[in-house]
Structures are given as structure tokens and as C-alpha cells.
Amino acid sequence: MAKIKLNSSIDSFYLDIFSLLNDTFLELRPKEVEVLAALYTKNYNLIPKIKDEKSRMTILFSSDSKKELAESLNLGYNSFMNNITALRKKQFIVNNMLNKKFYFNPKSTKIEIEICII
Predict the structure, then answer these.
(1) Which helix (H) or strand (E) holds 49?
(2) Between vectors from CA 32 to CA 104 and to CA 110, what angle results, nearest 5°?
């Protein structure tokens, strides 16, 4: 069994987690990891203001929000949307909702992951 320790800041938490998981499990392209991390980070930052998940997802997947995220990642809007489409096909986004399997709590930025290889 292998243990992996990850110390991360709140700002880079999801990028660090998804990058780590991508190395072994997720099979995403690097830009898909960045887009996915940006979506989960923005969702996390919206939680204190918008408790209702459906309302939060409506804002997260709004045109303005997607444009803002694309700019923050230095991606063209069409490139950003291509990554969103790829994430939908891979079930990371389902019905304009982030897949709940990947909701992590970045308040605890020290994470220890145990991997058991059988």
C-alpha cells in the first residue's frame, strides 16, 4: 500500500487533487483537468453565497461565468467549451451539474490518500 500526502492551498486545491487523480485514474487531457478544477473551485467559492445547488449550477454554467472561467484559464471561449463537452462525455458534468463523486472539502488542505494495488 502506498500513501500520498498532498499539501495544498485553497486556490490550487482542486487542480492539485485532479492532477494527482488524473495521473492514475481519470484519464483526462491536461486542459480538461484545468477546466474541471476551475469549475469545482468556482462552485466551492459560490457555496457561502448560494446554498441551493441547482441555483449555484445555473450560475456556474451561465454564459457569463463560462466566459469568465475561460479568460481566467487563458483559453478561447470555443476551446473552453470543447473541454466542457469532453467533460460531459466523460460524465464529470451531468445535466449541467458537477458530478458529486468529486466534491472534496478544501477546508482541510492536507490530504492523505492511500492507494492499495491488488
Answers:
(1) none
(2) 30
Enclosing domain of residue 45? 2-115
Number of domains in the chain: 1
Residue among 109, 105, 108, 111 nearest 43 (CA): 105
Decide if 66 contacts 77 (C-beta within 8 A): yes
For the entire predicted model, the pTM comes to 0.85
Beta bridge partners of residue 5, listed in sequence order: 112
Question: With a cut of 70, which residues of the chain have pLDDT below it?
Answer: 1-8, 106-118
Neighbours of 64 (CB within 10 A): 8
Look up residue 117 and give its DSSP letter.
-
Residues ≥6 apart with Cβ < 8 Å to 42: 60, 65, 69
* Contact partners, residue 34, CB within 8 Å, separation at least 6: 15, 73
Digit-coded pLDDT (tens) for 83-110? 999 999 999 999 999 998 888 776 655 5
- Can you point out the beta strands (E) in 8-89? none
